Each structure stands twice: as structure tokens, then as C-alpha cells.
Amino acid sequence: MARLIIVSGASGAGKSFLLKELKNIHNLKAVTLRKMTTRTHRNDDEKIKNENGSLDLILNCSQEALQSCDYTYYYCGHHYGFKKKDIDNIVAKGNSPVVIVADCSTVEIIKKDYANALVLYVQNVLSGEDLKNVLIKERDPIEIDERMKRQQESFEDYVRHVEKKIFDYLDFYTDKAKGGIYLSEPNKELIQLYDQKDYPRGIFPRSCFYTTKYKRYSVWGFVFNRKGELLLHQRSDAKATIDNRGLWDKSIGGHVNILDKSSLQTAKSELIEELFLPNDIDTKHLRADLGHIVNFGDWNIAKRGEMQFKEAFDSLTKNDWIIFGATGDSGDPISISRISDRRFHFSEDNVKYRKTIFMSDVYFFIAPEGYIDTHEQMKELVKLSEKTGAASDHKLISIGNLRDWINKEKEKDTEKEVFTDDLLYINVELIPLLEKFSEFIKLIFF
Hints:
Layout: E1 5-9, H1 15-23, E2 30-32, E3 35-37, H2 45-52, E4 57-58, H3 63-66, E5 71-75, E6 78-82, H4 84-92, E7 96-100, H5 104-113, E8 118-122, H6 128-137, H7 144-161, H8 168-174, E9 190-194, E10 200-205, E11 215-224, E12 230-235, E13 248-249, E14 252-255, H9 263-274, E15 293-299, H10 306-313, E16 321-326, E17 335-347, E18 350-366, H11 375-387, E19 391-397, H12 399-411, H13 415-418, H14 421-429, H15 431-445
Parallel strand pairs: 1-7, 1-8, 2-7, 3-4, 11-18, 15-16
Antiparallel strand pairs: 3-6, 5-6, 9-10, 9-11, 11-14, 12-13, 12-19, 16-18, 17-18
């Protein structure tokens, strides 16, 4: 659809460059609308003309000529103007007229006549000495101090008009129902965004990922004791918890922090944070007898037999944890990409499901002997987690009993009120793998 496109912004910010790029978009059919101006020739006019194919100005116009224009403005000592009929003629031919307007009040007037006009504001990403250095390097034809002054005045003009909602790009990115969901606020958690092909697309606030357009990178951790039992945790049932409140879930899980070098680092951190294990790096809760979380690589029995692991485990201290990366039948590391239904408690009588996409690397942990081998030991280990409300409860369970428990709830059609969507998926897709790992633990330690 042909429409007027207005490019506004700071002096020297790149409006002419944007004009050129818009013309290169074939489907847009952008045509530069030339303005009349009282300005005379400037040293960089030829450069702009050569780069863009033409100059968007008709120079050396008289005041009388500009009086015939429907839209005029005064900028940096010169008058500029253009006619409404020139806009309409271009649109009538199915093209999109593009015009630079360096005055926000004039943009506001034009928007009243062309409500569907697209307004793009260009602001220089540099400021201060950084901007000065670039202007000097590029040999800007305008005096440096004058260019800096224009930058400041242009931005102040922009700020005065922000609330009038004439800038489409800005409106889109401040509206929480549109692009505003990607705006971050101070002290809010930031995570990496990935597209449908698993390519990273930027860093955004965690709150924006309740969507199926983009993925968030996470880890799933399954913590076993030396009897081969799996640790489950029940998510907090506090009213402040909205996401999956009170549902039973896998042992641990969390987003890959943007500062983490790998998901392995995230998995170790989540073990410490969610179980409130003492560690002098990841938590304030110190205890001298905590050992290391020792990485034994991928768990692949086809490549390394049980006895090899048994010999390797003999070198551990009594307080060391064991971590493995889970692998599939092919021997490749498991990374699950799926749409997850999150159960949201907006209020006691308002419970809804929201979809989001995760891609999750899977890890196995084996706790040191005597840490969670009994119910009492387990409760002692996680008491701080439960006391602070990070989790409501924990449970040790065999893989067979977990499968039976979920199936019984399914018979009553209550499984979504008891288990997270992740755990229901795990019961279908990963139970055989969890059973194999549980048997591996029993073989090694008993």
C-alpha cells in the first residue's frame, strides 16, 4: 500500500542514508519527495547526490516560492517547504513518497492530513567526544560545535513531541501490547532470544518470552541419590508465584544466564541456587564440607562402560557431586525444543495457560552419599529452600513410581493441576532414559 513516509531526526544522524535504503526496498516503491529551500550549495551536497542518485532539495529558492508550499518549517537558519499535491501525485501512481522533515511540529501537522503516514525518527547513537571524533574523521562540512548544537536541539525537539505519539517506531516499542514487551527495565532479568532456527537474535527481558515467536535457552536438571531415586520439587504455592504455582516439577531448571559461558555452568549454578547448597561463588550460604560439582562429560554407556565410571568415581571425595550431560540413542547431547504450556494464577479464580518455547539442554546429577539417600537427609538439605518459599516441598521417588503417579492423575483428568507441562512431557519422552540412568546408578553404587 502506497503511503507517505516521513524521516525525521537529529542533524547528521543519517537521514539521507535512510532515504537511500528505503528506496532500495523494492516492494515499498519509495520515491524521494524534493523540498524547496532557501539554503545554498554545501560541500557535501555532491557526495549525497552521488550516493543517493539525487539531492532531496531544490536549492536557492526564494521566500515567495516557499509561500506556495502547504508545509514549511525553519531549521538552522534556512526555510524548507513542499506541497501537498506533490505527495498526492506520487501516491496516485502507487508509490510511497519519502520526505525528510527536520522539525517535529511540522511532522505533527502533516500527520493530521495523512493519518497513515509512517514516521521514522533517526537519532545518532554517538554523543559527546565520541561523536566529535567521528565528525572530525569524516571531515563534516559543518563546524563541529554547530553540528553538536544541532544534535542537541533536534533531540530536545524530539523529546517535546514524544507524548504526542507521532513517531510510529517509538509508539510500537513503547506499547506493551506490541514491541514494548521487548523493553527492559532497571534490575530486571535479561536473557538471550533465539529464533525458530536456534540462531541468537538479541538480549531481552525475561518477561517478553511468553510467546511462541521466539525461544529461550534453559537447562533441565535431574538430581538422583545413590539409590537411583529422583528428586522432585513442588513449585512455591505462595500467592506471589504466578507461573505454575504449586505444581510438581523436575529437580531443577532455569534460564541460561547471558553471562554464563555454557549451559553446563548454568546447570551447576541452578543446582546450588535451587537447593540452596552452600558455595562461596553462587550463594551466601557457606559450608566447609561442600565438595566440587565434577563434570564427567556426556553420559554414553556405548562409549564408556559402567566399570570405567566406577573406577573414575573412586577418586571423588565424599562430598563431591557428579554431573553428566544427557545423550540420546545416537550419542548426541540432548537439547529439547518444544512449546510449553505454563499455568498462570492471575488470581484465585483466574487461572489461564500461556504458551512459550524453550530449548533445554538436559543434565543428570548424582548427589554425594548421605546427602539425599533418605527422606530425612533430603529434608535437611533442602530445608532452606522450603523455609524461604523458593519451593513448597520436595520428594524422592523411583522412576516407576513417578510414571504410576502421573498415570493415576491422568485417569482422574487432574494431571495438569498436579504436574507442570514439562514433567508431563518428561513422562512421555524421557522416562526410558531416566530409567536407564537410575539403573546405571544402582549398578555403580550397590
